[in-house]
Write a structure and sequence with these properties.
Strand 11 and strand 12 form a beta hairpin. The chain has 8 helices and 12 strands. It has 2 domains: 200 residues, Rossmann fold; 71 residues, no CATH class.
Length: 276
């Protein structure tokens, strides 16, 4: 699953049409659209609006799933040509000077650039940076729910020193997003694949539910149990974890201690050779 945040309806419309997204009436705070793999929310202008929409969308997602996040929209740049797509490799909040560094672990099909988020439109163009009004709010919020390799901002350059922001219209914005839909998709698809891979890795071991049915584990203990059972599988032991082997224990705490003691006693195998 990927969550996409745009500030404006005209930024979102090409994606709604291309991915055949449907309006979701369950969401009333923001305009939301979705299909089986994509959720798109229109936040409104500004970093506070972007942060609020991001938090709202995160709260509506199923617990425990890894979702990718993409902030898509237009941005200004002093010298870059109009309509060029650029992925942010560094995001700066101008007011607070906070910085974030998205994890570039996927193939990049466009150039990347620094992105600075400002609180109000600026008439002078900064050097060597894109400028927008949402990305820092989006990233600050999304990073509370997901790791950096799954959070990105993709901007289409809408204005520069020769073609200023006063000349931007809804029509030109629609055209720029439409013209770059292939590049946008080339960012979305690897993010979908990465989030799917992480969800597969993060799935609880199947034996975990048997343990939880036998003993009461707190949320903290459930995380510890998940870690121990994954460790058990990683050791490739001949016997699979079974709650029956720990049936003499009466509390979840003693079960966790017993599993840890058992695993600590196992030899670590490298290249199928046990090392004591």
């Amino acid at each position: 699953m990927i969550n996409i945040i745009t500030a404006l309806q005209c930024e979102a419309r090409p994606l709604i049409e291309y991915y055949k997204l449907r309006g979701n009436a369950r969401h009333s705070a923001f305009r939301c659209y979705q299909n089986d793999e994509i959720q798109l929310t229109i936040s409104g202008i500004g970093k506070l609006a972007a942060a609020t929409a991001t938090t709202y969308l995160a709260a509506s997602n199923p617990g425990g799933t890894s979702c990718a996040w993409l902030n898509l929209g237009i941005a200004g740049h002093a010298k870059t040509s109009i309509g060029k797509p650029m992925l942010a490799h560094k995001i700066i909040d101008n007011a607070s000077e906070r910085q974030w560094f998205p994890g570039m672990v996927m193939p990049i099909t466009c150039d990347s650039e620094v992105l600075t988020t400002v609180d109000k439109p600026e008439k002078t163009y900064r050097k060597a940076t894109m400028v927008d009004m949402e990305a820092s709010g989006f990233y600050a919020a999304a990073s509370r729910f997901q790791s950096c390799e799954l959070i990105h901002s993709l901007k289409i350059i809408s204005d520069n020193q020769q073609y200023t922001s006063e000349q931007i219209t809804e029509k030109t914005t629609l055209a720029m997003i439409n013209d770059n839909i292939t590049t946008i998709d080339s960012i979305i698809q690897p993010l979908l694949e990465l989030s799917s891979e992480l969800n597969t890795i993060e799935q609880p071991p199947p034996e975990m539910y048997d343990f939880m049915a036998q003993w009461h584990f707190t949320t903290y203990q459930q995380n510890e149990l998940r870690h121990l059972l994954r460790r058990w599988h990683a050791l490739s032991l001949s016997n699979k974890p079974s709650h029956h082997d720990f049936s003499r224990h009466t509390t979840s705490k003693t079960v966790l201690i017993a599993i840890k003691v058992f695993l600590d006693q196992q030899p670590v195998s490298f290249n199928n050779k046990a090392c004591q």
